[in-house]
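During the reporting period the student researcher (J.K.) took over the structure-prediction task from the postdoctoral fellow and processed the backlog of single-chain submissions. One of the processed entries is reproduced below for the supervisory committee.
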Amino acid sequence: MEEGTIVRWLKAEGEEIEKGEPLFEVQTDKVTMEVEAPASGTLAKILVSDGETVPVVQVIACILEPGEEAPEEWPIPEPVKEALIPRPAVMPAKVVATLAAKRMARERGVDLTQIEGTGERDVITSEDIQRFLEKPPPAVIAAPPRIKASPRARRLAQETGISLSEIEGSGPGGRIMEQDILDFLATQKLVTPSPIQRITAERMSESFTTAPHFYLTLEAQATRLVEWRERLIPAIEEDAGVRLTFTDMLILLVAKALQDHPLANASWEDGRIRLVKEINLGMAIVVEEGLIVPVIKDADQKGLADIAGERFGLADKAAKGKLSLEELEGGTFTLTNLGMFGVDEFGAIINPPQSAILAVGRIAERAVVENGKVVVRPTIHLTLSVDHRVLDGAEGARFLGDLKSLIEEPGEVFIGGSRQDDLEAA
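J.K. obtained the following structure tokens:
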């Protein structure tokens, strides 16, 4: 974490506070969380208001101990990181020169630290000083011509961060007027990204430029998947209290497929492949602030009812901004589904340091060939994005082929992952 946004203060100036008591809420690049008071006393001064974004270790408020008087001037809210990190003293470079060179430099007023020595072991000689004195003075760059603008236009440009060089003036002689600034601003629309959007952009840019992506796409018949969902909906609703979705079913099927393909569940770290035993499925969720990926831990060890309930809870927390860091960490593979938006097929960017991500389109009735005849069946498009540093095309294709088989005949997985009374009810 490099910076955070103060969402809101939970205490007002002048209030008494206890150490460990929630003091304010801060939004990081992932979640919004409460920060506890580091000491007891009086919250005497708030230096950073709600909605402001500040770097880590910046002073944002002052707490006075009982009986302590307020200072005449409050500290300026500046980062204190430099004060916290001791730095070694910078020693001045030692200048080595001949006696004649030192005397010549003293007489001519030359700073020896500006001279590059050419003598043995870089010793500065009289010839070095003479060459320095004979060098032509640096060229003087003429200042750019002053842009003509009215005082009100200059003030507005300064307040809005607009460079006058971008504006074409409509006044006499090309003079920039206030209305010219307003007209320019009307054509601009800059939106500051949320912390989640910013970190997502940074991570996805890093992933796409460092991990060699390639994509594998296939179409799977979803007839059995649709049938099983209809059979299991009542049992899952009774058990978990939520409605079973295709995403829930795919999470379980993907987790089971990963058991036989450890490289698809691995990660690339510091030039090596890290293999992990846990299968933790991240599911991409779009919230108002951007894209967030909560994680269902040990998905391959859970039943459909557990996955459906956990998926619903995580999605609800994500919408409310209440996810904890633990619920966002530890993912080993990510599933992203845009089928509910009517998307048929797309390729996703890998969530680093994971080695693969599965993009799922909508289930729709499409023409397929069976026994030489064209028939209409519900199908689903799957696109696997793969980091070629970890697994090659053949291994990625085998994983995707096994997943296709599970989607087309999922009964064994769902029977093994459901309680007996759920199956009897279905």
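The committee noted the following: The radius of gyration is 32 Å.
J.K. will present the remaining backlog at the next meeting.
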